């Protein structure tokens, strides 16, 4: 037709309206993408990756405004089209794969109906052909029983399957441009590996162009031909994938690479400190589900970190809930400092509760949005120590300083903080109780790599200065190697391997641990 | 408290979420109704005076008062009278009115019929209109139509019923003379005349509830419209109308059904003011009269019926929300 590139973004600038004047989100970014090519967009959250991804589809989130530049598809500026034409173009030729398939699928409709919806709406296929195409895509993406998979509702399939179903939804209209917005971030490593393979296959099979957005350089490196590094809405570095990884020019890219490469094990001081927490023969189940944990026994020495790793659904978080008393087990005991703890939280003494605190995966969900940071921290001080007035205020300042936050933040609300700051507030809240054990349930998996690195460093310093122990639940092997002393690998509710990090994560492996380790994307196994 | 009561039933009829919900609700309703009847009885006991002094008035002689009290067993201790009443109700007998000496079941069914006719007529017009206005204002979110709908609903919410009722009477009955000002209906009235008599009270009640339903429909829909799957639908290129109808509405049914239920209950139990403005012989008037005359059995009967109305509409709303929720319809 013409020889214009599929996607051509020229000097694009986008601003957000805010109470304190417009904020520039995208500043003079240009990129081109040909058919059959994959361009990786990489950067921390707030770098503007998703905004560019949306702009490539002619879509802006509410409150955003294009202040300069063009987005051309096949040489035509789509920002100049009417809203209706833009919708039609989007439905027929462009597609989007979101980070969280759980959120992006409508809970009220069957998967199959949602997958074929756009294909039907834009008259490219009739219903039976569309359904056939959906079944073919389900089969290609290796979804279970592809012929009936579409009959299910989103809540009836697993997260990894849902993510693949969303890829099927994007592919169903046979689009020319697909934007993948962190499609594997919410998945555990083994599932991520499968989804990444599926993505590479569909792109190769369809000949579409793709933008692949991620904050994880190792993941992008596995799918992208070229990489564009973004920071604060500006393009920092652009080049072929191999070249960016091997010979980065910018300091920022080097910092990202460093985090991605880190994997050096922590010094295994095989000290025989006394056991702080010991878990004996725990079997646990939820009321409406099957048994989640089968006869789990673990022990955590004082001032050490025990990492619990495994895929989602392996029972890691359930174990955390048994230890902090939220889920009384059906059998087995939890002993702390040599005493057996009451099974359920409401039977534990206030002091027992104080000594075991929890940090959750999502600080957004763990902080009350209607309370200031100060009042979030005040609660444990009053509840456990009966502090009042000036002492309380001084302690809040001290806690915020300990987690490397400005004490002035005490007056802010969680919504005014960044993800990393919010997680620091959660840590401060746990510290406020002066615990001996902190259960960390994936505390860094929702954070950008540099921010996550900062949180881990903080946790390590706190451990060294105050002798804290951590029960560290994670699916990230690199974090385990960098951070933990001991590790327990869980699979289907059982501990399949445990020991010091150096021993347990070195060969020979059992089947499952071997698979788990092989699935971790690293910069060195880029094909 | 209620969730604890639900648990054992969940297990026994677990395969049928709707049956288990109904069973659980009925099981909870019985103690609720029991407590309500005690509260109403206690409240009428606390009020100064009794039916004897209310009926005989100032000129009552002590012997006449005593005779009347003996007739209604008012000389008995309160708990005995309550037990007496309760055993009657359990046997299906609501008792006899202290003042009219007529069978309460008979009188009340007539009054309840009138109330239900007015409520149903109002609901049939108002509920679809309100839901439609709510959808329309989301469709034109922040546009002129949205603002106009908002202004209208705010005005109706702010307007007290006695004021809008008299305003309507002033305009349509007094000034224009199109409609009757009184909605008094009689046994041998023609259906046409009945319908005409109901127009003004219906509009008054509609104005009282339409704002609430519209505002909540709009809010529930807007809440859903900020979900990621709505953004996904936009990125699929679907039109705004399709997005609202197919993607937002099914997920907003629960809250909308709840606010509709709340307003339906209000149409049954809260229409006292409208009934007095239009002299309409419904339940509200009946209960107020009974309270003034200390006619305890009648007050009790009204209270029970109002409680049942609340329980039933709320249960219907929950069943509706349950049917609309695929997680509950199609468990894993």
UniProtKB/TrEMBL annotation, chain A:
Q: Which residues form the ABC transporter domain?
A: 9-257, 277-517
Extract the SMART domains matched here.
Answer: AAA (SM00382)
Q: Which GO terms describe its molecular function?
A: ATP binding; ATP hydrolysis activity
Which CDD domains does this entry report, sorted A to Z?
Answer: ABC_NikE_OppD_transporters (cd03257)
Which keywords accompany this UniProt record?
ATP-binding, Nucleotide-binding, Transport
The superkingdom listed in its UniProt entry is: Bacteria
Gene Ontology biological process terms from the UniProt entry: transmembrane transport
> Which residue stretches, if any, does this entry annotate as coiled coil?
none
Question: Which InterPro entries does the record cross-reference, listed alphabetically?
Answer: AAA+_ATPase, ABC_transp_ATP-bind, ABC_transporter-like_ATP-bd, ABC_transporter-like_CS, P-loop_NTPase
Answer yes or no on keyword Transport: yes
Similarity comment text for this entry: Belongs to the ABC transporter superfamily.
Write down what this protein is called. Answer: Peptide/nickel transport system ATP-binding protein
Automatic annotation (TrEMBL), chain B:
List the residue ranges forming a coiled coil, or say none. none
- Membrane-protein topology: Multi-pass membrane protein
Q: Which UniProt keywords apply?
A: Cell membrane, Membrane, Transmembrane, Transmembrane helix, Transport
A GO biological process of this protein is:
transmembrane transport
Q: Which GO terms describe its cellular component?
A: plasma membrane
- Gene3D superfamilies, sorted: MetI-like
Places the protein is found: Cell membrane
Looking at the record, the residues that make up the ABC transmembrane type-1 domain are 112-317
The principal localisation class reads membrane
Enumerate the transmembrane spans.
21-43, 116-139, 151-175, 195-215, 255-278, 298-324
To which protein family does this belong? Belongs to the binding-protein-dependent transport system permease family.
What is the name of the protein in this document? Peptide/nickel transport system permease protein
């Amino acid at each position: 037709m013409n020889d214009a590139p599929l996607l051509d973004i020229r000097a694009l600038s986008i601003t957000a309206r805010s109470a304190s004047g417009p904020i520039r989100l995208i500043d003079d970014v240009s990129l081109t993408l040909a058919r059959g090519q994959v361009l990786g967009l990489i950067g921390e959250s707030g770098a503007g990756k998703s905004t560019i991804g949306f702009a490539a589809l002619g879509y802006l989130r509410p409150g955003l405004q294009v202040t300069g530049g063009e987005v051309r598809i096949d040489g035509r500026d789509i920002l100049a089209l009417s809203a209706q034409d833009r919708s039609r173009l989007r439905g027929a030729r462009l597609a989007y794969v979101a980070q969280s398939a759980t959120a992006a699928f409508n809970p009220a409709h069957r998967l199959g109906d949602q997958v074929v919806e756009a294909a039907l709406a834009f008259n490219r296929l009739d219903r039976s052909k569309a359904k056939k195409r959906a079944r073919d895509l389900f089969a290609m993406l290796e979804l279970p029983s592809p012929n009936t998979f579409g009959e299910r509702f989103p809540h009836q399939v697993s997260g990894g399957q849902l993510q693949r179903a969303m890829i099927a939804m994007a592919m169903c209209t046979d689009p020319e441009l697909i934007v993948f917005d962190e499609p594997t971030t919410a998945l555990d490593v083994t599932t991520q590996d499968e989804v990444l393979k599926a993505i590479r296959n569909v792109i190769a099979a369809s000949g579409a162009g793709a933008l692949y957005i991620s904050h994880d350089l190792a993941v992008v490196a596995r799918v992208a031909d070229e990489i564009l590094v973004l920071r604060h809405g500006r393009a920092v570095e652009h080049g072929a994938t191999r070249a960016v990884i091997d010979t980065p020019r910018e300091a920022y890219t080097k910092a990202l690479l460093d985090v991605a490469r880190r994997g050096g094990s922590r010094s295994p001081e095989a000290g025989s400190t006394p056991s702080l927490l010991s878990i004996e023969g725990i079997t646990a189940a939820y009321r409406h589900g099957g048994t989640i944990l089968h006869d789990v026994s673990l022990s955590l020495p004082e001032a050490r970190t025990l990492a619990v790793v495994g895929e989602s659904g392996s029972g890691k978080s359930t174990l955390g809930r048994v230890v902090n008393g939220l889920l009384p087990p059906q059998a087995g005991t939890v002993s702390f400092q040599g005493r057996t703890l009451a099974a359920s939280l409401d039977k534990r003494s206030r002091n027992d509760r104080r000594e075991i605190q929890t940090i959750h995966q999502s600080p957004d969900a763990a902080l009350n949005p209607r309370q200031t940071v100060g009042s979030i921290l005040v609660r444990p001080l009053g509840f456990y120590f009966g502090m009042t007035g000036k002492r309380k205020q001084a302690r809040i300042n001290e806690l915020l300083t300990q987690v490397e936050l400005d004490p002035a933040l005490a007056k802010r609300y969680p919504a005014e903080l960044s993800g990393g700051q919010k997680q620091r507030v959660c840590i401060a809240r746990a510290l406020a109780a002066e615990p001996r054990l902190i259960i960390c349930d994936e505390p860094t998996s929702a954070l950008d790599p540099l921010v996550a690195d900062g949180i881990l460093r903080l946790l390590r310093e706190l451990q060294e200065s105050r002798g804290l122990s951590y029960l560290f639940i994670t699916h990230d092997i690199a974090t385990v190697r960098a951070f933990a002393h001991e590790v327990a690998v869980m699979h289907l509710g059982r501990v399949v391997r445990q020991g010091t990090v150096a021993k347990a994560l070195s060969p020979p492996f059992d089947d499952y641990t071997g698979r788990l380790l092989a699935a971790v994307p690293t910069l060195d196994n880029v094909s | 408290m209620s969730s604890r009561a639900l648990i054992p039933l969940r297990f026994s009829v677990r395969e049928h979420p709707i049956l288990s919900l109904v069973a659980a609700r009925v099981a909870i309703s019985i103690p609720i109704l029991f407590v309500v009847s005690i509260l109403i009885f206690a409240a009428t006991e606390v009020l100064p005076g009794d039916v004897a002094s209310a009926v005989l008035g100032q000129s009552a002689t002590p012997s006449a008062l005593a005779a009347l009290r003996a007739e209604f067993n008012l000389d008995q201790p309160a708990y005995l009278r309550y037990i007496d009443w309760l055993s009657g109700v359990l046997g299906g007998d609501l008792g006899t009115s202290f003042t009219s000496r007529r069978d309460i079941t008979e009188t009340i069914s007539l009054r309840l019929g009138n109330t239900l006719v007015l409520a149903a007529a109002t609901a049939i017009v108002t509920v679809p209109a309100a839901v439609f206005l709510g959808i329309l204002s989301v469709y034109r979110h922040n546009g002129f139509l949205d603002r106009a709908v908002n202004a209208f609903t705010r005005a109706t919410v702010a307007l007290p019923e006695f004021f809008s009722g008299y305003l309507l009477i002033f305009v349509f009955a007094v000034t224009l003379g199109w409609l009757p000002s009184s909605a008094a209906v009689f046994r041998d009235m023609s259906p046409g005349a009945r319908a005409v008599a109901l127009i003004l009270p219906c509009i008054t009640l509609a104005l009282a509830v339409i704002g609430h339903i519209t505002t909540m429909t709009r809010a529930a829909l807007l809440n859903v419209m900020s979900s990621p799957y709505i953004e996904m639908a936009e990125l699929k290129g679907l039109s705004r109308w399709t997005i609202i109808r197919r993607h937002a509405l099914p997920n907003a049914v629960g809250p909308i059904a709840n606010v509709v239920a709340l307003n339906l209950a209000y149409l049954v139990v809260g229409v006292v003011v409208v009934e007095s403005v239009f002299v309409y012989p419904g339940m509200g008037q009946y209960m107020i009269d009974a309270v003034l005359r200390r006619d305890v059995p009648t007050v009790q009967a009204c209270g029970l019926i109002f409680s049942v109305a609340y329980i039933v509409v709320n249960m219907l709303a929950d069943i509706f929300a349950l049917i609309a929720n695929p997680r509950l319809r199609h468990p894993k």
